[in-house]
Fold this sequence. Notes:
The chain is of the alpha+beta class.
Amino acid sequence: MKKRAISLxxxxxxxxxxxxxxxxxxxxxxxxxxxxxTEAIEITADGExxxxxxDSLPDSDELFAxxxxxxxxxxxxxxxxxxxTDAGDRLSGLEKDIYTDLKxxxxxxATGERSSTAFDVSADFSSLQWTKAELGVTAxxxxxxxxxxxxAAVNEAFSQAVDLEKILNCxxxxxxxxxxxxxxxxGMAVQRGTSYSSTSVSITGLTLSFMVASAYASGxxxxxxxxxxATSTAVTNAKAIVTANASKADRKKLxxxxxxxxxxxxYNSSAVAGSTAYGDPWQLIYVFDxxxxxxxxxxxxxxxxxxxxDLSTFSGDVTCYTxxxxxxxxxxxxxxxxxxxxxxxxxxxxxxTNCDSGTIGAxxxxxxxxxxxxxxxxxxxxxxxxxxxxxxYDESQKDLFCSGYLALTPDSSSGMGEIQLKVTSYGTAASxxxxxxxxxxxKKSTMKPGTQTGQLTSNVITVTxxxxxxxxxxxxxxxxxxxxxxxxxxxxxxxDLTSHSDPAVKNITLLAGDVDGDGxxxxxxxSVIRYASNINKTASSAANPLADVDGDGxxxxxxxSxxxxxxxxxxxxxxxxxxx
Length: 580
């Protein structure tokens, strides 16, 4: 896996752009009733607004894209901080406390855990109190109101003690991605709780309200948690998919990811009509958001498959790449995004978009497949039925993952299926042979050597590299009747007979006792066992080793008993033929 880099350059640019800025701050207007000389009163100061320089900051959509990438990457690599600290480390005392408290609240909004962006700051404001002498005023209260002189002095004293502009700039520099929802053109409003008496003034509270960008808002100071929580929900759901398939073999794991993605989303044809550009963070979110109405284009399919692979632990050397180029002949023709998976030392194409239902490659014709490339590996052409599906890498893909283009590795097994079956028989020295027939002609066979155990033994046999098609499957073993399952349909997904609903298909049990090999089990076979050249001999010394029906190494009346079992005697091949 190739680690993605979070944009350090972006943060450094913001640091240099933000800190030189000197922003004008409006005076805070206050209202009061006429207080007795000894009574303290609470006043909330409104009207102060801090607006960062919009030209120095990326827009909310850019920051959201970076935030999504950061949060998805955190689950892959671990240890990525939710926010930086470089700017905040320059703060101290109460300013640092305010900054730290705000970071926690900002992150809660970013993850969808909190909707309100009006933050009541949790900090110790006891240091923010001043006497009349410290303020340098002749009176704090006069004629029943707080004097203009006192208001101006308090504003100045507060700004000297707490630089809110600096705190905001530190937050924008250290956690820009978490502030993707912040409307930076509207800024941050300030409400300050202040207690006045005739002899002193103290700050009792501070509320900083961050205005929400319209794309993420359900109110001026309220975030839409459905949108802000979408990233966290998607990450959680993606991790659940990986966990559910963790015990599977590498290839089966990849197959499960393909199937799950196609189950979760469908192709968004309307988005293609609008020429959606690559880089939309919602493409990845929509696959895992649990909402069947949010669908994707090729970018969503490819990035979702990449993400599940990146989250996974494989037993072998498996690497997934996401590539771009053009594709013709399939869904999403034109500019296209797909994957190349390095599996078992081969580069194989994965186009999950064109594995979805209703596409030319459904369900696995364009999954973990390869053909020889042309134009130095830049172009690969797959033929499905009579249609050519052509993939051509963008020029930008050259030398990106390897020297030149990421050429596929043709393999005779690509696009092939396999059959799993369970066979039960007496453990004799005879081999078990599985043959696949079409129109009476043998197309493929697999042999499992026999092991002499003298007991009924079950084995799972796998027939690999089977060309998709319809076959009659025949299991044969010397001394047993042939067992036939007709019309077995094999796809590139393979077929597992051991999970079939019909017990006769699920567990293939060979009938033993055809000692003379005529395709029937009857008293003629008993006669062969009782020939003087066979009975009471070891299997190795008997004239016909098949007379040792049970495989215990001896020919005796126990073998006669097996032949005469009701399940065996007077049976022929027709009793061992079933339909798939």
